[in-house]
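Write out this protein's structure.
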Amino acid sequence: MLGKNSTVTGYKSPEDRKATPIFSGCLKYFPLAIAEVSRASLAGQIQHNPDKPLAWDRSKSGDELDALTRHLLEAGTIDSDGVRHSTKVAWRALANLQKELENLNK
C-alpha cells in the first residue's frame, strides 16, 4: 500500500509529517470519541471474530456509507449490542475515508 520510503501516514518528507498533527490535530480534539470508536472496534471483533486478535476484517465491512446512514438515522440512541449508533457512524466514516485514501494510492 505505501511506498518503501513512506510512513504509516503515507507522507515521505519531514515537512509533510509536520503538517499532519495527528495527536494535536485529532486525538487531542476528540479523546472521548476516539476512545469510544476504539471500544466499538473491540466489540465488533468480539462479535465477528472472538478467537482472533483485534483487526479490521474487511470481508465483513463493505457497505460503509449504507451502514453509516442506517446508524445516523438512530443517532443519539444505543444499538442492541450496547454501542452508541453515533459511535458506529464515526467508525463507518473512518472506514470509508481510509478506503478512499488507500484507493488514491492504487
